[in-house]
């Protein structure tokens, strides 16, 4: 089945750090965190019914992570149980999973073309400092991605990485000059078939020494930009075959100039990745003063959905054999065959919003109740009355990937959503 991942709005782009995504408001940590963290604590008793119990310890890269250290009932913590349960799943390290198959295909491209020169990191812990996630890659203090509305904070100094760029500076400081970092990344977001609060990214970095560009007669930046484009065009060809491509100028805090690569896939332009010439400041701080470097970041789900024709991002998390048995190691682009499609059920929810209302907080509540049974949460009506009160109406689509849901089950979910939206987001239902 053909699917389009072309972004309808800039903020639906997989590239969070794109300038167009900077919104005009920043939530104060306490205001927004209290909403979401109290939401998850109140949701706990209700979702037992639909969920497996969450393990209380996970191991990543040989390090044990205890749930109580990640999910705490504290206003500076906005990590729900459902997110903790994803830590350590590491879909990118499963060779028979579409995400792992794609990762291996990209590693393969670099191994073939750079004779194994790129060091690979795919077991780095997703719990990082806010400094690593933001400061080290020059994300401005007022950037929207730092808000509690967009990022999962464990405490004010510690986050679940929202991009693999969080590891760039440390790996450079350790002395590496060619490397790829793959990992699970976490973002509070809206709910639809291409957005899930956990997904996987790959970061690539290559550092050049003066002799490399001097011989070319080009200046350092032009040399790095030209090499970057050549490398990534080759990668796109390796993955997609002979496709039409175009470069679009972009903005990222960590690169200058910055670009996005798009490919023409089934008559639509699809954003494949973001990249650019690394800001000199990042290199300088990691002890590389006479160098220039390029970097790129790509979202694995976005590409895997196209390559394997996987129509909904929730499918990647299924343990159902009808999904898992369709993929095998080394087989990039085997087309996914949907097992019979189960009917969706739509329920509307209207309420008067307040000043602190955000769609991400609403989605967190809905996910807390319905988990992966929620397919989409969509604003379908929005108006402000004469008194200045604003009403939103959201349409929630419930659909299981594995079975038909009963009316009773859906009504119960919707009832729980209504209760919690009212109590946790302090909105007035209509
Ligand atoms: N970290 C960016 C994001 O998640 C993606 C990215 C863009 C990474 C450009 C890079 C880069 O290394 O150079 O939106």
Average pLDDT taken over every residue? 89
Helix content: 25-40%
CA-based gyration radius: 22 Å
**Low-confidence segments:** 1-12, 19-51
SSE arrangement, N to C:
HEEHHHEEHEEHEEHHEEEHEHHEHEEHE
Counted beta strands: 16
Global geometry: globular
Strand content: 25-35%
Q: What bound compounds does this protein have? A: 3,4-dihydroxyphenylalanine
Biggest sheet, open or closed, and with what strands and sense? Answer: 7 strands, mixed
Number of helices: 13
Strand arrangement across the biggest beta sheet: 3-7-8-12-11-10-9
Secondary-structure map with pairings?
Blueprint: H1 29-47, E1 57-60, E2 63-66, H2 67-70, H3 81-84, H4 98-113, E3 119-121, E4 127-129, H5 130-133, E5 153-155, E6 158-160, H6 168-173, E7 178-186, E8 198-208, H7 210-214, H8 220-240, E9 244-252, E10 255-265, E11 268-278, H9 280-285, E12 292-299, H10 300-307, H11 321-324, E13 345-352, H12 359-370, E14 374-384, E15 390-398, H13 407-425, E16 428-429
Parallel strand pairs: 3-7
Antiparallel strand pairs: 1-2, 4-6, 5-6, 7-8, 8-12, 9-10, 10-11, 11-12, 13-15, 13-16, 14-15
The structure holds 3,4-dihydroxyphenylalanine.
3,4-dihydroxyphenylalanine (DAH) binds at residues 15-17, 163, 165, 203, 252, 254-255, 274-276, 295-297.
């Amino acid at each position: 089945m053909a699917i389009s991942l072309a972004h309808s709005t800039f903020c639906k782009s997989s590239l969070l750090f794109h300038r167009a995504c900077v919104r005009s408001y920043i939530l104060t940590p306490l205001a927004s965190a209290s909403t979401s963290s109290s939401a998850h604590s109140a949701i706990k008793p209700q979702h037992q019914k639909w969920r497996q119990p969450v393990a209380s310890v996970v191991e990543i890269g040989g390090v044990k992570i205890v749930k109580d250290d990640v999910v705490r009932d504290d206003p500076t913590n906005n990590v729900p149980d459902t997110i903790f349960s994803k830590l350590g799943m590491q879909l990118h390290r499963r060779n028979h999973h579409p995400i792992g198959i794609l990762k291996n295909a990209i590693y393969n491209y670099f191994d073939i073309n750079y004779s194994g020169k790129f060091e690979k990191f795919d077991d780095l812990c997703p719990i990082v400092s806010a400094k690593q996630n933001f400061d080290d890659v020059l994300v401005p203090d007022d950037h929207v991605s730092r808000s509690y509305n967009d990022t999962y904070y464990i405490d004010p100094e510690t986050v679940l990485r929202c991009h693999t760029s969080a590891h760039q500076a440390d790996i450079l400081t350790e002395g590496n000059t060619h490397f790829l970092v793959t990992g699970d990344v976490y973002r509070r977001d809206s709910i639809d078939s291409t957005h899930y609060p956990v997904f996987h990214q790959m970061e690539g970095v290559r550092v050049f020494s003066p002799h490399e560009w001097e011989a070319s007669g080009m200046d350092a930046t032009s040399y790095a930009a030209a090499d970057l484009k050549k490398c990534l065009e080759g990668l796109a060809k390796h993955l997609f075959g002979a496709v039409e491509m175009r470069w679009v100028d972009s903005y990222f805090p960590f690169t200058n100039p910055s670009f996005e690569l798009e490919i023409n896939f089934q008559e639509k332009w699809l954003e494949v990745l973001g990249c650019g010439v690394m800001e000199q400041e990042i290199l300088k701080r990691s002890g590389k003063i006479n160098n220039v470097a390029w970097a790129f970041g790509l979202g694995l789900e976005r590409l895997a959905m196209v390559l394997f024709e996987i129509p909904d991002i929730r499918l990647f998390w299924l343990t159902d054999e009808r999904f898992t048995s369709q993929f095998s190691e080394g087989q990039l682009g085997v087309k996914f065959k949907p097992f019979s499609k189960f009917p969706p059920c739509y329920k509307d929810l209207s309420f008067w919003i307040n000043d602190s209302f955000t769609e991400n907080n609403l989605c967190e509540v809905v996910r807390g109740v319905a988990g992966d049974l929620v397919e989409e949460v969509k604003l379908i009506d929005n108006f402000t009355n004469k008194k200045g009160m604003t009403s939103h109406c959201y349409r929630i689509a419930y659909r299981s990937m594995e079975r038909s849901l009963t009316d009773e089950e859906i009504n119960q979910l919707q009832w729980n959503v209504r209760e919690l939206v009212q109590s946790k987001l302090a909105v007035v239902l209509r």
